[in-house]
Design goal:
The protein has 206 residues and is of the alpha/beta class. It contains six helices and six strands, in the order βαβββαβαβααα.
């Protein structure tokens, strides 16, 4: 039996351009090429449920945004996504050996008495948000100010601590190349080889 992964990702590149979205989609395609059954739960932007298969990946778009928030900025939707994804998986009878949460949306799965192992990838503040914050701070305090210097130092230290960085191209604005398929496949192969005897845990109702 092949390994199966259920990825929980609030958005994909088809809806939003960003680093987390590019990483999610590139990883899902590469896992599929390695023979892993990859399924993604993501947000429906038209309030309708959709299921599609693309590049060997099954994608479920989930309608969960409360009516009162549909015309509001999308960042107000995200607190509802984790619980909605878990509920959808349970009601649809989806099963997987591993749940991979892209950012902090595994809360619904972790609340179950029985659940598959959960892997979480933490994503930082989008580069665009950081740059906008820096520009706004510069307008408030001036370009030469200790707060700006401290912000730059904190950003440099945070990125320097990363053991491995695979630039995805989404947040680089053309300044760094995206990883090649080979880069991703090598990284994923190493990770997949560490997973032995998958239990095939299903998401069972309590």
């Amino acid at each position: 039996m092949s390994l199966s992964v259920l990825t929980v990702a609030r958005t994909l590149p088809s809806a939003v351009v960003g680093g987390m979205e590019e990483v999610t989609w590139n990883l899902a395609k590469s896992l599929s090429r390695l023979g892993i059954r990859e399924t993604i739960l993501t947000t429906s932007f038209d309030s309708e449920a959709h299921v599609a298969r693309r590049d060997g990946v099954t994608i479920h778009e989930i309608p969960y945004v409360p009516r009162r928030l549909r015309d509001k900025p999308s960042y107000r939707w995200w607190p509802y996504f984790g619980a909605a994804a878990a509920l959808y998986a349970r009601e649809a009878g989806l099963s997987a050996d591993i749940v991979h949460s892209q950012s902090f949306y595994a809360n619904g799965f972790l609340a179950w008495r029985e659940h598959a192992p959960v892997v979480l990838t933490a994503h930082g503040t989008p580069m665009g948000d950081y740059q906008a914050s820096r520009d706004n701070l510069g307008k408030e305090v001036g370009r030469v100010h200790p707060r700006l210097a401290l912000q730059r130092i904190a950003f440099a230290l945070a990125t320097a601590r990363a053991r491995t960085q695979l630039h995805n191209g989404g947040d680089c604005h053309g300044r760094c190349p995206p990883p090649t398929d080979g880069d991703l496949r090598r990284e994923i192969s190493l990770a997949a080889q560490r997973i032995s005897r998958p239990r095939g845990t299903a998401f069972r109702k309590r």
